[in-house]
């Protein structure tokens, strides 16, 4: 069976430090897997390595059976990526329509396809944001921005969606909206890998959780139950190693730059 994601014995070393240690993770078709762990445990690094953004020092990554050595080797027509909102939309002076249209562009396709308008609208309808088509993304709430970024990832109709901390800095109402969006996508048959600080309101949607600690997998199985009284709304840390805010031109031209 060809897996959407198959990571085998992956090691990643950055700045002389071993960040991931012998990590093996499988995501099968139709699963909704959470990647959990404390700050600095290596979750984002694993996602970035899976999308060819950071190189492996040992081990292998396959997406739909394709070996991933660099960003260009990712089968982007089958994989959607939703980056952390804080790094993706800060200061971008674009409308919702423009942001979602950028999901249809790439280094090889710098003009939108003929049916772009209909596809953009359909993607926004899937996340309940069609009414906001013409609004500047910077004017939207955090939760709404998050849904627009999901629409941008959905506009190519991927089979596998990777989301990096979609609940970070999002208020409780928007978290519930996000959970129902995710439930709908799962019903549509999407395979999902979602990086989370803790499983929280998404726990009922998860088929499995992989927990990282100090760059190694310490759990791969049923999702842990959310702690009583948990509140993720205040989890809005910034990454000291985060990519710089994307220039609008990069956002408009090449969604693969977001990975
Ligand atoms: N380019 C880099 N050079 C050196 N160290 C790095 C680099 N990128 C990440 N790291 C380090 O790797 C470790 C894991 O970082 P990573 O962002 O993958 O963790 P995380 O689990 O996603 O954390 P968070 O919850 O804060 O997003 C951290 O100690 C981080 O400082």
TrEMBL record:
Domain of life: Bacteria
GO MF annotations in UniProt: ATP binding; ATP hydrolysis activity
Alphabetical list of PROSITE patterns matching this protein: ABC_TRANSPORTER_1, ABC_TRANSPORTER_2
Residue stretches of biased makeup (Low complexity): 245-259
Pfam families listed in its UniProt record: ABC_tran
Location of the region described as Disordered in the Swiss-Prot/TrEMBL record: 217-259
Biased composition (Basic and acidic residues): 228-244
Record's keyword terms, sorted: ATP-binding, Nucleotide-binding, Transport
Domain ABC transporter: start-end pairs: 5-239
CDD domains reported in the protein's UniProt record: ABC_Metallic_Cations
Protein name: Zinc transport system ATP-binding protein
Organism: Serinibacter salmoneus
